[in-house]
Amino acid sequence: MVRKERSVVRRVTGVTGALALLLSGCGVIGSGSGATPADLTVTSPAFRDGARLPKQFTCHGEKLSPPLRWSGVPAGAKALALVVDEVGTTSGATVRWVIYDIDSRKIEITENAVPREARQARTYDGKEGYQPPCERENNYRFTVYALRERLNLPDGTDVATALSEIAAQTVARGRITAAHLE
């Protein structure tokens, strides 16, 4: 039993560390180039930045992933990634969805869809795909990353590896945040 608990602690610590690197504003992302990542603009036709996430995109509703749009992808970007995480008042960030190797020419993800060429990492609970939020008072961040190279990781890659690779390849990023749930 102790061995299993240590394994879970190591896995959570690794995910937390990778997420901290990815989400930090300290210039860690894209640090391989020595430059601070450029800004992308991320919007959604379903909710405004800072507004509540509509019920259909939560575990209390239809459990759909929301539609997202972005602009400002640098010309040299080879791929995009999306990381959805939950930030609670008493806990760290929980990764709810990771998609990578999205075609850099795409400008949106439609409701409840994954682009055909994209791949998904496992999330905090070991599952692939969108894990709809449930905690009404937490914040939910939808962050799009422009990557200098495709990651070429297989579907089902563990979240720590995917986040680390995204962090190493990021040249631009943007985010929309849902403040709480409807």
TrEMBL record:
Record InterPro entries: PEBP (IPR008914), PEBP-like_sf (IPR036610), YbhB_YbcL/LppC-like (IPR005247)
Pfam family of the protein (one): PBP
CDD domains documented for this protein: PEBP_bact_arch (cd00865)
Family under the similarity heading: Belongs to the UPF0098 family.
Protein name (database record): YbhB/YbcL family Raf kinase inhibitor-like protein
Lineage, uppermost ranks: Bacteria, Bacillati, Actinomycetota, Actinomycetes, Streptosporangiales
